[in-house]
């Protein structure tokens, strides 16, 4: 196990009706708040509830509305200007990961004098972050409890992550009932995203990270168990609750502390989303099994076999290579059949024309520290095998 | 899953050499510090390292030495007086759970005007707690990351827990190498204590706490895997590291949030320690399998069977009752044969003479909310079956 400094100070208000604590919690962070959201919370009625809570707490609200999926740097810049103009003290995101990510970089951008895109390209330029909080409406990115944010620049075809300890939300409201109305597609993509976060930590070269590995397996099993239930029965509270709590624990550093590894599939997927604006979780579901085949070819059947027995319950007495093969097949089948996600790039409208370009962009981000090496030609082969 | 408010703000400095950060971390909490310890840190050399760190950081140190296992209220009172006399700003515990527990109640007692035993009997009387930090030398109680403390009053034969959110340490240094010199006996007792903490959360009546249950199983497997390794090879870093991190995660609320249940075995064991001053972990190892037999008699073979398949890898295709029986046998055998702990009360010098008295004391503490009911006669039967 590696040395680590554990610090996860986010307060999580989990469960039905926790919105009633929003006003008091938010007031402790500031009396002038930027409220960030996409569009759906106006339809669901959550917008009104949030506004009432903030108003009852005597908070002056400025709104940044219309934040898009794969949030754009233009939205972030709009938020930064609003914060400066309104002397905003804290930022509240109400929505899924895109809204929260946007809110985080707004909060970090206010005190940065240069072009806000700079702090996405180089997180070390972040000097001060306004307090951030969230009300979560989608179990997926884990942004509600982590330090990271992913922002898209469509002009430069870049989708990049930035992070800072102070971007971790001070508190997040996690009410599983808010996800009852999440579409089947978004539920499936969210579940694939959660699973990918876990897998990125699980496949580590660090020896002796036993506790972390067992936690990864538990959370993967939560996704495998409850993902299909949430699809079949969108208002199953336990399914939505476990998926939501799993989304937060998957990426809040609990799994990675002591077992740090450079991520593999996310960087490859971010190129797909940056070039084609596809849904992140769908891209992950397509690339993950193909990446696992690369892991197998790279001689790590051992790690895939542990994954197979502990997560999928495959018989330990089978030959290691068979278990590894079955684990990959189970993963592909789960994404495609149980979650109903696309299995190939062709199904999301991506052809072979720009694979080299994307592989060139991804390669430098994957140059060191991944579980198995991912050179340009490996990445290109994974893209091609995913067509 | 139940509603919960997650808040675990303790910073953990984990790994070899983390003591080098002690001075700076402590200085942020205060410049006049009460240093609490037992005796062993003077032998190991840790005392000198700690003192150097504090002195280099310009901290004035007052010492509370000689804190005993099953810490006594008299030691707490001595610490409270020292804090008042020295206008102490923060409390640093260097040791195992007994030292940390004592330090916590000292920190809570300073501002309490009445008899300090009052705040053990009634945690709601705690109004203000000095900041607490710890350097851990024993993987067992989890006090380094939780809100609780257990204090013994030998005059009244009471060993009782108290808790307050502000008693959770601000930071704890967890260097697994400090546990290399822990004796086989203490290593075994610590492992049993950790396992009991996990089991107390694992056997819950709350439905749908899937994530919590899988985490419990992962941590139990860590104890089962690494406990015997640490006994056989006391300086095995990965064994000591996993046991240490498991001790903290077992009881820091991660497992209990959303799955709250009143604990069973701890309250029964506390009577043994209060009457006979035996080592807590040994008492837990004796009572746990006997309590599980009571669980089985109470009709909860289902829960024991999940425990059996997921923790002990027992074949799922066997009849439920057989799996449950085997799970209990495995538990008893593990404590006795793999950890070398006593299997009966007789082995720790407890005879049948005071069982009724202890059962009378334990019964009110177990009156509501336990996994299966524990009336006076149930407790007495468990004690008797453990003789």
Which key features would you list for this structure?
homodimer, 387 residues, alpha/beta, Rossmann fold, Dehydroquinate synthase-like, alpha domain, six-stranded parallel β-sheet, two-stranded antiparallel sheet, 49% helix, 12% strand, globular
Molecular structure report:
Two copies of one chain form a homodimer. Chain A has 387 residues and is an alpha/beta fold. The first copy, chain A, folds into two domains: 11-178, Rossmann fold, CATH 3.40.50; 182-385, Dehydroquinate synthase-like - alpha domain (Dehydroquinate synthase-like, alpha domain). Helix content of chain A is 49%, strand content 12%. The first copy, chain A, has 15 helices and nine strands. Chain A has helices at residues 22-27, 40-44, 46-56, 73-86, 97-109, 117-121, 184-202, 210-232, 237-251, 265-276, 280-297, 301-312, 320-338, 355-362, 376-385; strands at 4-6, 11-14, 32-37, 60-64, 90-95, 132-136, 148-153, 158-163, 171-174. In chain A, the strands form two sheets. Chain A has a six-stranded parallel sheet with strand order 2-9-6-5-3-4, sandwiched between helices. The first copy, chain A, has a two-stranded antiparallel sheet with strand order 7-8. In chain A, strand 7 (148-153) and strand 8 (158-163) form a beta hairpin. In chain A, helix 7 (184-202) runs parallel beside helix 9 (237-251), helix 8 packs antiparallel against helix 9 and helix 12 packs across helix 13 (320-338). The two termini of chain A are 38 Å apart. The relative contact order of chain A is 0.11. At the A-B interface, strand 1, strand 2, helix 8 and helix 9 of A face strand 1, strand 2, helix 8 and helix 9 of B.
């Amino acid at each position: 196990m590696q040395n680590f400094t554990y610090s996860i100070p986010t307060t999580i208000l989990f469960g039905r009706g926790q919105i009633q604590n929003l006003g008091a919690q938010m007031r402790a962070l500031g009396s002038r708040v930027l409220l960030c959201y996409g569009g759906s919370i106006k339809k669901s009625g959550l917008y009104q509830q949030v506004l009432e809570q903030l108003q009852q707490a005597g908070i002056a609200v400025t709104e940044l509305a219309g934040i898009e999926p794969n949030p754009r740097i233009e939205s972030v810049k709009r938020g930064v200007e609003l914060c400066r103009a309104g002397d905003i003290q804290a930022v509240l995101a109400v929505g899924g990961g895109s809204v929260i990510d946007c809110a985080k970089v707004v909060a970090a951008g206010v005190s940065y004098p240069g072009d806000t895109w700079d702090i996405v390209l180089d997180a070390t330029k972040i000097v001060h972050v306004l307090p951030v909080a969230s009300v979560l409406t989608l179990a997926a990115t884990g942004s509600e409890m982590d330090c990271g944010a992913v922002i898209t620049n469509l002009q430069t075809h870049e989708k990049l992550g930035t992070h800072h300890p102070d971007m971790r939300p001070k508190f997040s409201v996690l009410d599983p009932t808010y996800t009852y109305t999440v579409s089947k597609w978004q539920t499936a993509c969210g579940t694939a995203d959660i699973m990918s976060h876990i897998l990125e930590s699980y496949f580590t070269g660090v020896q002796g990270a036993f506790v972390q590995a067992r936690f990864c397996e538990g959370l993967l099993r939560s996704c495998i168990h409850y993902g299909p239930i949430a699809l079949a029965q969108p208002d199953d509270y336990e399914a939505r609750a476990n998926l939501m709590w799993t989304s937060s624990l998957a990426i809040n550093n609990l799994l990675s502390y002591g077992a740090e590894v450079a991520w593999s599939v996310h960087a490859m997927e971010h190129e797909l989303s940056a070039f084609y604006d596809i849904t992140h979780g769908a891209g992950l579901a397509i690339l993950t099994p193909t990446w696992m085949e690369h892991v197998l070819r790279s001689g790590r059947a051992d790690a895939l076999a542990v994954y197979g027995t502990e997560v999928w319950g495959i018989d330990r007495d089978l030959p290691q290579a068979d278990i590894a093969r079955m684990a990959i097949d189970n993963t592909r089948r789960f994404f495609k059949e149980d979650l109903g996600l696309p299995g190939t790039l062709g199904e999301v409208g991506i052809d072979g024309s720009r694979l080299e370009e994307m592989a060139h962009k991804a390669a430098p981000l994957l140059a060191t520290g991944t579980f198995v090496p991912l050179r340009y030609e490996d990445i290109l082969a994974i893209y091609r095998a995913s067509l």
